[in-house]
Design goal:
This protein is an all-alpha fold. Helix content is 83%, strand content 0%.
Length: 299
């Protein structure tokens, strides 16, 4: 009896409304109920993710080793062969306006060519799915066109479209058409048979089946092709500028190598890589917006 009488007040004090535990719980609930604090915690968790920290740390270490000339010693390179990051940064700072203008010009060629090539590839996939008898042959022709080297396409496109943005856009169109055609055709063909039977049971016509089933099912494949084309288009535009151009990163890179201005040439390479990454991230963001219903976007 004595033990129970001693323990009871302590239990009541711990469970009472005026004790310190109540204020602790209230404070904790107020922290988690504040939307601003929750958003800040989410941002902090995102940046502390190993998937973000590890690549950043690897990049910093890589640049540090490069600046300390470790790669020069390892591969027996001279500074004019592989400029230091500080020299590249200085060249970018001194030629900021020129590099920015030429980056925009090359990016315009890449975007225009990619949109045209992707649209043509999607139309080919649409026609190949609607008329399967010749669908395989059309995809084979597109794949054969994609197998033609860019160095062979560049002179032909220059003769057809002149020494302007049209020739490089045509090169990018030819190099991005196949990825879209093949991926979109796969997405339109790989529909669920049960869903197809359901559409037929509703007496849906061919246009309705394409609109509500086949095209919807092909969207993840379409965005996969767009992400592939985002980087391939930059390659096509830059290589096309090597041969016939008076502007652009490829033109500036070619001239910089000829006159041994390697820091400026490497500046073109860095900006081309940055533009390609930004282009890819834009397509990835559009994918999250347009197909957020897909299972790949729910994680």
């Amino acid at each position: 009896m004595s033990s129970s009488s001693v323990q009871e007040p302590s239990y009541m004090a711990a469970a009472g409304g005026d004790g310190p535990s109540t204020s602790l719980i209230t404070t904790k609930e107020s922290i988690y109920s504040d939307p601003k604090k929750q958003k800040g915690r989410r941002h902090l968790t995102k940046w502390l993710n190993p998937g973000v920290l590890l690549p950043l740390a690897a990049g910093v270490i890589f640049l540090l080793l490069w600046e300390l000339e470790m790669f020069h010693k390892l591969f027996d390179l001279k500074k004019y062969q592989l400029p230091l990051p500080s020299a590249i940064w200085e060249a970018m700072r001194e030629n900021y306006s020129l590099l920015l203008s030429y980056t925009g010009y090359t990016l315009s060629e890449a975007v225009l060519g990619m949109l045209t090539g992707s649209a043509c590839g999607f139309l080919i996939a649409l026609a190949a799915t609607a008329w399967p008898r010749w669908g395989g042959g059309s995809l084979t022709l597109v794949a054969a066109l994609n197998a033609v080297p860019i160095v062979a396409l560049a002179p032909i496109m220059n003769l057809w479209f002149g020494d302007g943005i049209g020739s490089r856009a045509a090169i990018v169109t030819a190099t991005t058409m196949a990825a879209m055609a093949i991926n979109a055709y796969k997405g339109m063909s790989a529909v669920d048979p049960l869903a197809l039977d359901l559409m037929h049971s509703y007496a849906a016509g061919k246009p309705a089946v394409f609109r509500y089933l086949r095209i919807q099912n092909s969207l993840p494949y379409v965005f996969t092709a767009l992400k592939i084309n985002a980087t391939a288009s930059m390659i096509g535009a830059i290589v096309g500028e090597f041969f016939f151009s008076s502007r652009g990163l490829g033109y500036l890179l070619s001239n910089s190598i000829k006159v041994a201005k390697m820091p400026l040439g490497w500046s073109c390479i860095v900006l081309a890589a940055v533009a390609g990454v930004i282009f890819y991230l834009v397509v990835e963001r559009l994918e999250k917006v347009f197909i957020k219903w897909h299972s790949s976007q729910r994680s």
